[in-house]
User: Fold this.
Amino acid sequence: MNYDYNLSAIAVPLILAAGSVLVLLTDVLLGKKAKDSAYQTTLTILALAGVFCFTRWGTGGSAFFGQVYTDGFTSFFNLAFLTVGFLVVLNSPNYLIRNGIDHGEYYMLILLALLGMTFMASAGDLLIFFLGLETMSICLYVLAGFHKSRAKSNESSLKYLLLGAFFTGFLLYGMALVYGQVGSTNLAEISNYLAEAANPLGGYMGIGLALLLIGLTFKMAVVPFHFWSPDVYDGAPTPVTAFMSTAPKAAAFAAALRIFYHPGIELGIPWENVLWVLAVLTMTVGNFAALAQTSVKRMLAYSSITHAGYLLVGFLASNELGASGMLFYLFMYGFMNVGAFTIAYLVNRRGKGNYNLSDFAQLGTKSPMLAALMSIFMLSLTGIPPLAGFFGKLYIFSAAVQEGYVWLVVIAVLNSAISVFYYLRVMVMMYMREGEDLADLEKAPTVAITAVICGLAILIFGLFPSPLLDLARASIIALL
Amino acid sequence: MILHFLTQAVFWFLVILTVGSAIVVVFNKRILHSAFALLFTLCGVAGLYVFLSADFLAASQMLVYVGGILTLIIFGVFLTARMYNMSIPEQTHQRFLALLPVLGLGGIIFYVLNSAEWHLITPMVAPTTENLGKMLLTTYLVPFEVASMLLLAALIGAIRLARPRKEDHDD
Assistant:
């Protein structure tokens, strides 16, 4: 038997696994004396994992008998997950302490959720992918309900758990059918089977892969499997919402790319039509629902559905530009959404705590800095040049046009135009509306730092998008 | 000859145990009696696995279903005061409508059983656990370890959600 235990191939998840136990121990041993020991340990671990991810950038190939891939794609997504994780952890203590829920388990669960995501992106086997997805999901179910004394948080957790378990059934059933047809869960074996079979999607293969895709679209919150997301995002603690709306979505798209862009496993034509319809529905339904929201948190929840629709456009294009555009977009979307939720949380403290849009009134004069940052996030989410969100959309849409999806892109651009309305409404509120004189903003340095980092990242990668895009392109080569 | 007879006798005993107690599960009015009858059904299934020389499956059937899930059901019944003596309504409404899916499903099962090509293989008496153990620590080492992290996350999460702690104010 050949020796294939290359531990450095899974260095990032190993650090996260060891780190999660370490965080738990520091919280138990030092938590009483130094309140923020778990917080600092978590930040250190995430930074360490980031350094490892960067210095040992994947060069291709697989390890552990084809169970995990160690290519640039894995490293790119690991970096994206760790970045979002770092930003979310950085701004969490403020919220947790204020609500009396600053327990070490919070950080531990974030680390384990990230561990699950890294395996989703690197999976060379459906088994690994499934275990990664479940590890991530279980952590998210608990994190959504972390604010136990609040009914909405419980509702959020329960809804997510019940629907998540239901869709796990679809996913697992699809995998079982694929296994029944191929006799293996390994992606390489599956693509070998598809290459040799006379009728690749015959038997149980077509329905198996379709069920697999349905399970994934649930995690992406694609219409019509999106009903959970507004309530879950609304009820969860705000830093958790920022986390849930970005990293797991990126992980679901990473897994979809990994499985369905795997050389040899390609989407058939009937599915392209289905995905076309799903993309249009997702963009449109998310947008029109977002128009009607008065709560910023819910508005952002619906807008994240819309963004899943834009990403599906890139997924459909299935060429190099589209896929690398998706990677770029997912990376940047993390900065935009975490930043927007962070500021929404800060501003919400001035009002009655309902994340009302009217809380933003006069923010432009009260705190020009925060207002400017929020404007960056809103403009970037809309896709206004020269911010990073614009380039993400540009790459995805032009890739789709290259592949002949002209009408799809027309609909996507129209949707972007509609989204201007609700994103700019926040800015109008900040700069032009007279509002009741709300209390002053609280001083929360870590939260402000998070927002500044997000804003700078969007500006820098908006002005100089090519390094990141080149990195994304190099990462996607392994798949295409 | 005697061995063959004994094997047959044990097999039919297991079949009757499984099916008979399953019938009790369905038709009994007391939920606790049903739960105990389920114990025999699950043990019978484990015995049938032994006949298929799937020793690992039989052992995990005993551990997971009998040791875990069944205990959970019985605990659930004991801890829910009103369920202990609750009688389950078992009148059947719409007998004719119910007959359609029953006949349909029965027909499908009969058709599949009838049309399948059954291959009789010589039973392997070698234990499967050795190979499974080797596989878990070689080819499937990573999934095995990830599963343990998943369980850790579930444990910690469950404790966090279930354990009462003083919690304060609202957002």
